Task: inverse folding
């Protein structure tokens, strides 16, 4: 695919955001830091999937972003309940 | 776009190694969700949206949900530090 200048800038910004969030995932001193960075990465990836759908000109990728956003929220809430502790 | 694919595959490799190295179970679950996250974007960039949707549903939703609920049931959660949790202290009376 050939991208315009604005699309290339958005791709670079998405890559930089992924890199910074992933550095916090690797370096996070405690477990909640890593979980919050995973949540941030899921939001960044949802935006990145919408951006890829705009690059490719196909509306099917928006469904992928929708499913991913909803299910990543459910997964992060489950991990947060695991951090909270106690017995379910 | 080949550099974005390379960045995502490097993220997958580093997160998979982090799952092996990390001693905190909750951090390992978070790193597992990052592996499936990057794999879903790789499938989208390779123009396979149906595979990416299945990977998002199973990897980001179900696997982290099941792993987190099993951690909660087994009493393996520990918030502070990356030390190994006291399994005998938390798990016996569960």
Result:
């Amino acid at each position: 695919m050939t991208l315009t200048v604005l699309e290339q800038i958005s791709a670079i910004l998405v890559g930089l955001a992924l890199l910074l969030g992933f550095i916090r995932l690797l370096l996070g001193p405690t477990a909640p830091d890593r979980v919050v960075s995973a949540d941030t990465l899921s939001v960044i990836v949802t935006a990145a999937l919408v951006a890829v759908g705009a690059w490719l000109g196909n509306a099917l990728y928006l469904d992928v972003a929708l499913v991913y956003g909803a299910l990543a929220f459910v997964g992060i809430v489950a991990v947060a309940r695991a951090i909270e502790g106690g017995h379910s | 776009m080949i550099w974005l694919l390379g960045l995502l595959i490097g993220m997958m490799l580093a997160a998979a190694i982090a799952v092996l190295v990390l001693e905190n179970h909750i951090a390992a679950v978070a790193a597992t969700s990052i592996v499936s996250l990057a794999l879903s974007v790789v499938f989208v960039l390779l123009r396979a949206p149906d595979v990416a949707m299945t990977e998002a549903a199973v990897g980001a939703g179900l696997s982290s949900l099941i792993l987190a609920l099993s951690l909660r049931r087994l009493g393996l959660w520990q918030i502070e530090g990356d030390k190994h949790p006291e399994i005998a202290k938390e798990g016996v009376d569960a």
